[in-house]
Write a structure and sequence with these properties.
Rossmann fold; 7 strands; about 15% strand; globular; binds hexanoyl-coenzyme A; binds NADP nicotinamide-adenine-dinucleotide phosphate
C-alpha cells in the first residue's frame, strides 16, 4: 500500500517539510511519504553523498528538494540550512526532528563524552532545530514531529545515553506543545518500534535470522515495522486530520512494548494451563 493510494496525492502540495537526518532510514522514509503527497522537502545531515542520493529518490517522486550539510549540534549551521530551505522552497510547514546517534555501551563502560555525544545529537539537536525553525513555523502555523524511541520511556540495557536523550525529547515535545499552541504550532512525537532494515536495528538488534524470528514472535502483530509505517504516522500527525492533536506521543510498534508484563503473562498462561489440566479451571 502506498500512502497516495489512500490519501489525496495533493494533500501536502505547496507545503514545505524539513527533516533533520533526512538522508537515510526512517527519516528518509518519512520524507518519501510527504513527497508522495505533494510536499517539497528540505533535508539535512552530515554526509553530502547521502543527502544527494536521498535527493534523487525524492525528486523521483516529483518533489522539489533542498539539501544542506549541517550537524544538528551546530545551531548556526542548522539555522542557515533552514534559511536556505525557506529561500528555495518557501517557509517550513512541518519540521521533523529525526537526527540521532546510537551505539550499544553498558553504562559502566560508557565514556562521559559518549553519553554527552548522544544527548547532544538527539536532545539538543532537536531543540536547536525547533528553536531555529520557530519563526517560520509561527508564520505557517506549522507542526513539529519528534522521532523518539522506546528507550525514552522503558529502560534498555546498554542504552543509558539514548534513554536519557529520548526522555528529554519527549518532554521537550510536550513543553513546546504547551508554549507554542498559542501560535497555532502543534508539537507531537512518534515512538517507532523495531523497524526492519534500518541503521538502528543494525547497531542494536541481533544479526541472525533465528534471533530475529524469536523477537518477532513476541510482537503482538508478529513482525518488525517498516519505514513506511512511521512515514504514514508522520503524515497523519502533520495533516488536518490531526488538527486538534498536540502534545501526543504516538507509539507505532505493532504492540511490541506491551510486553512489559510478558514474563508475568507467560507464568499466568502456564498456571491456567496447569489448572485446566487438573480440571479446576
Ligand atoms: C562506545 C563509543 C562508540 C561505541 C562512539 N563512542 N562509538 N563508545 N561504543 N560503539 C564514543 C567515542 O569513543 C567518543 O567518546 C564519543 O562516543 C564520540 O564519538 P565520535 O565518533 O567522536 O562521535 P561522532 O563522530 O559525533 O558520532 C556520533 C556517534 C556515531 C553517535 C558516535 O555512532 C554516529 O554518527 N551515529 C549516527 C547514526 C546512528 O547512530 N544511527 C542509529 C540511530 S538509532 P570518547 O570518550 O572516546 O571521546 C537510534 C535508536 C534506535 O537512535 C532504536 C532501535 C531499536
Ligand atoms: P539512521 O539511518 O542512522 O538515521 C539517522 C540520520 O541522522 C542519518 O541520516 C544521519 O546522517 C543523521 N545524523 C546523525 N547525526 C547527525 C548530526 N549530528 N547532525 C545531523 N544529522 C545527523 O538511523 P534510523 O535507524 O533510521 O533512525 C532514525 C530515527 O528513528 C532516529 O531518531 C532513531 O532514534 C529513531 N528510531 C529508530 C528505530 C529503529 O528501529 N531503527 C527505533 C526507534 C527509534 P549522517 O550520519 O550523514 O549525519
Amino acid at each position: 500500500m502506498q500512502v497516495s493510494d489512500v490519501l489525496p496525492p495533493t494533500m501536502f502540495a505547496g507545503k514545505t517539510v524539513f527533516v533533520t537526518g533526512g538522508g537515510s532510514g526512517i527519516n528518509l522514509g518519512v520524507a518519501r511519504n510527504f513527497a508522495a503527497l505533494g510536499a517539497s522537502l528540505g533535508i539535512c545531515g552530515r554526509t553530502a553523498e547521502r543527502l544527494e542520493s536521498a535527493r534523487a529518490e525524492l525528486e523521483g517522486l516529483g518533489a522539489k528538494v533542498s539539501t544542506s550539510v549541517a550537524d544538528v549540534r551546530d545551531y548556526d549551521a542548522l539555522a542557515a540550512a533552514l534559511e536556505t530551505t525557506r529561500t528555495e522552497l518557501g517557509p517550513i510547514d512541518v519540521l521533523v526532528c529525526g537526527a540521532a546517534g546510537n551505539f550499544l555501551a553498558p553504562a559502566e563502560a560508557m565514556s562521559a563524552n559518549g553519553f554527552k555525544t548522544v544527548v547532544e545529537i538527539d536532545l539538543i539537536g532537536s531543540f536547536n532545530a525547533s528553536r531555529a525553525a520557530f519563526e517560520q513555523l509561527k508564520e505557517t502555523r506549522g507542526t513539529i514531529l519528534f522521532i523518539s524511541a522506546p528507550q525514552g520511556s522503558v529502560p534498555h540495557f546498554a542504552q543509558a545515553h539514548c534513554g536519557a536523550a529520548k526522555a528529554g525529547v519527549d518532554n521537550l515535545m510536550r513543553n513546546l506543545a504547551l508554549e507554542w499552541g498559542r501560535y497555532g504550532i502543534r508539537s507531537n512525537g512518534i515512538v517507532p518500534g523495531p523497524i526492519a532494515g534500518t541503521e538502528g536495528m543494525k547497531r542494536l538488534g541481533p544479526q541472525d535470522d533465528k534471533a530475529n524470528a524469536e523477537i518477532q514472535a513476541t510482537i503482538p502483530l508478529g513482525t518488525y515495522g517498516s519505514v513506511d509505517d512511521i512515514g504514514q504516522a508522520a503524515v497523519f500527525l502533520a495533516s488536518p486530520l490531526a488538527s486538534y492533536v498536540t502534545g501526543a506521543l504516538l507509539t507505532v510498534d505493532g504492540g511490541a512494548y506491551l510486553g512489559g508484563t510478558r514474563l508475568m503473562a507467560h507464568k499466568i498462561q502456564s498456571m491456567l494451563a496447569q489448572q485446566k489440566g487438573r480440571g479446576d479451571g
